[in-house]
């Protein structure tokens, strides 16, 4: 088999199901939950043909990219379960920093690249609610899908798609792949680090009781914090400054008039794009 669990994930009781090709690893996970799977199981492939991103967009994984879904059974309300998206983002961020430490920082030729402290800028950033950015381009997307269980609680499929060898084209936003930036990291190698990191961050999350700690870690790596932000919610646009995320993971925006609003879902733009919106 191409994929395997890391030692940390194996010790924590996670399992693994690998596919040579899958339509959607999220759908495979949900089908397993309906058939009685106990959860804590990864469903992975390097070729996904019918995956979905947020807002119904296609998310296909060509040969060599990573499509991985973790199935969990949780007793929580949907709001608590939704914070698992932040666990997933942190886990992938940590996995990438572990196997490619030089992804963390970049240094401009003159010692200053125009972002953050002089001479140093974090190349990896987490974009609310569920994206991982590398050099400002979308490297990975995360999609949570849940359904109630007859015995109570929810089955949650936490899908993670990573552009390892190729990024999709024709998107309305910049995209990046590890390969295009010179990183020869295979999907199986990345998955080992991801599974181990997820096991660690999930312990911090502690069935939702530790979300305050997850929230602090996420904010340390957040894209656009303190910058202009515009969020499209249906036909409306909410704009202002990205102040924080609240205790439920919602985006907190302060308008130019000082009004504070919280946003639970929407399409986010930062910087110049936000100003134009």
Automatic annotation (TrEMBL):
EC number annotated for this UniProt entry: 6.3.4.15
Gene3D superfamilies xref list: 2.30.30.100, Bira Bifunctional Protein, Domain 2 (3.30.930.10)
Keyword Transport among UniProt keywords: no
Entry-linked PROSITE patterns: BPL_LPL_CATALYTIC
SUPFAM superfamilies: C-terminal domain of transcriptional repressors (SSF50037), Class II aaRS and biotin synthetases (SSF55681)
Domain of life: Bacteria
Record InterPro entries: aa-tRNA-synth_II/BPL/LPL, Biotin_CoA_COase_ligase, BPL_C, BPL_LPL_catalytic, Transcriptional_repressor_C
Keywords, alphabetical: ATP-binding, Biotin, Ligase, Nucleotide-binding
Entry keyword Ligase: yes
A single GO cellular-component term on record: cytoplasm
Identification of the protein by name: biotin--[biotin carboxyl-carrier protein] ligase
């Amino acid at each position: 088999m191409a994929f395997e669990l890391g030692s940390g994930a194996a010790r924590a009781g996670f399992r693994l199901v690998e596919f040579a090709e899958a339509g959607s690893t999220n759908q495979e996970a949900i089908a397993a939950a309906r058939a009685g799977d106990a959860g804590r199981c990864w469903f992975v492939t390097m070729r996904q043909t019918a995956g979905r991103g947020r807002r119904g967009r296609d998310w296909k994984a060509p040969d060599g990219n990573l499509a991985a879904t973790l199935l969990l059974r949780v007793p929580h309300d949907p709001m608590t379960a939704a914070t698992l998206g932040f666990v997933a983002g942190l886990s992938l961020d940590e996995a990438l920093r572990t196997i490619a430490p030089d992804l963390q920082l970049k240094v401009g030729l003159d010692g200053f690249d125009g972002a953050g402290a002089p001479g140093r800028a974090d190349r990896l950033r987490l974009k609310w609610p569920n994206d991982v950015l590398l050099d400002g381009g979308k490297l990975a997307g995360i999609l949570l899908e849940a359904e109630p269980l007859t015995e109570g609680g929810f089955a949650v499929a936490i899908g993670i798609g990573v552009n390892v060898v190729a990024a999709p084209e024709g998107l309305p936003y910049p995209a990046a792949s590890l390969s295009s930036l010179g990183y020869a990291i295979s999907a199986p190698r990345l998955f080992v680090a991801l599974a181990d990191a997820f096991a660690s961050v999930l312990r911090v999350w502690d069935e939702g009781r530790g979300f305050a700690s997850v929230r602090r870690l996420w904010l340390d790596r957040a894209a656009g914090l303190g910058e202009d932000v515009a969020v499209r919610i249906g036909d409306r646009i909410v704009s202002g400054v990205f102040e924080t995320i609240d205790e439920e993971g919602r985006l907190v925006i302060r308008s130019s008039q000082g009004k504070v609003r919280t946003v639970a879902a929407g399409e986010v733009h930062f910087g110049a794009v936000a100003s134009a919106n």
